[in-house]
């Protein structure tokens, strides 16, 4: 079972981010779940609702290396991965690492770069390494990408390739704040930024230990079969043109383990799978027919409704509460 240090650190990170992002506890918890599950997070919403602020607040709550990449149409792949430069004094090429070499990489407005540049992240997000000029360089551990993007109908955006969307463990939307949270924001941010007062809650070694704790949470055979049944159902559903990949099933269970750990349990419940099905599966699926031609090419609401229906139609296994 997760110890008191794990739970205290988790609550500390959530509390730190809440000082910046008001009234979005569920969104913050999913972001932390992805971080502890060694995944990558995609935050999609309209401009100005706090996407980048959430990413920066999460990064500042952890004392580790952080880099930020501002994606623009003229950004090159080498601007992300790094480049080999000839060192005249030594008479050989020397590799200059790019901003991808950090524990937490913030990719701001990722879909404003061309698909060619976006694809520079594919190897690093899946294999946690970068290959430049035939040489492979291992990335830092832990490593996670927190990317923001605007809806595809916004001016100057490109749709993310399916292969890259599939590498993000979860996609979340910020949504507009309620009236009370927006009023509090006006009063507290008139003279300073709340990011300035965030202090790190854990360091990189402690974060790595928390990740190990989440990874060791027990998922019974029946819970794993439940996740597989949901994924298989997305591939057969007539309302979907593209179903969940095997990578999606793997990441759904990993995220469920992290959610269970945050809840103080050392075993996964079907409730964990149900709660994470939409954020983990939704951005990977493509609706059939006209329904698929929506935000980001993969509909927020429409696909979410399809996933929710599939989850509701998939029988919850009996005896799924088990301990290792």
In short:
By secondary structure, the protein is of the alpha/beta class. It has helices at 4-18, 25-36, 51-60, 78-81, 115-118, 122-127, 162-165, 179-188, 204-215, 221-236, 246-262, 270-281, 301-313; strands at 41-44, 62-63, 66-70, 82-87, 92-97, 104-108, 129-132, 135-138, 144-149, 170-172, 202-203, 240-242, 286-287. The longest helix has 17 residues, at 246-262.
Mean pLDDT: 87
SSE string, helices as H and strands as E: HHEHEEHEEEHHEEEHEHEHHEHHEH
- Terminal Cα span: 10 Å
Q: Proportion of β residues?
A: 15-25%
Low-pLDDT runs of 5+ residues are: 290-301
Distinct helical segment count: 13
Under CATH at level 1, the class of the largest domain stands as Alpha Beta
Count of individual domains: 2
Strand count, sense and closure of the main sheet? 5 strands, parallel
List the helices and strands and how they pair.
Blueprint: H1 4-18, H2 25-36, E1 41-44, H3 51-60, E2 62-63, E3 66-70, H4 78-81, E4 82-87, E5 92-97, E6 104-108, H5 115-118, H6 122-127, E7 129-132, E8 135-138, E9 144-149, H7 162-165, E10 170-172, H8 179-188, E11 202-203, H9 204-215, H10 221-236, E12 240-242, H11 246-262, H12 270-281, E13 286-287, H13 301-313
Parallel strand pairs: 1-9, 1-10, 2-11, 3-6, 6-9
Antiparallel strand pairs: 4-5, 7-8, 12-13
Helix pairs in contact: 1-2, 2-11, 9-11, 10-11, 11-12, 12-13
